[in-house]
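ESCALATION

Customer reports they have been waiting on this structure for their group meeting. Please prioritize. Original submission:
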Amino acid sequence: MSALKLERGASSHSAYDLRDYHAAGEERHTLAVIVDNEAGALARVIGLFSGRGYNIDSLTVAEVDHTGHRSRITLVTRGTPAVIEQIKAQLGRIVPVHEVHDLTVEGPAVERELGLFKVMGGGEKRVEALRISDIFRAKVVDSTLESFVFEITGTPEKLDAFADLMRPLGLAEVARTGVAALSRGR
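Update from on-call: job pushed to the front of the queue and completed.
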């Protein structure tokens, strides 16, 4: 899990803000890549992106088949349709890669992300933070006299909206898991 410290006046355009601030013609795509669970597999996938100047907006990795020793890499990236096709083709040629799925074009998919948000403050701001957390169905997982840590699960846009509302109330630190996604139905 990655963490990001927020300073007063910090830009809301962070690596964790998955809203579209990019060039026209670019599309957001969620890719699921099944790889051998071996040393260097993730590095090869990441190397493809960094070596060609592609950005990864979100990245999650976990072993999903213990007996077959396979891991699933779920990543969110942006690019023109031609760039996305090139990324998928190049991913398919990497040795430990078994499958590449573009969940964005294969049909409806479910995307979720877990976020932890530390909010510092007291008085009315503290009460308002609790009220907003209730609306978003965020759980308080830690509380001190000076701070709360909220846990929230949902779409990246939901977490972005929660962060936007907590920022003026004393949002001090954020940790987000990145997108986990599965196609719906068959």
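Sent to customer with the following note: Helices lie at 41-52, 81-92, 123-135, 156-166.
Escalation resolved.
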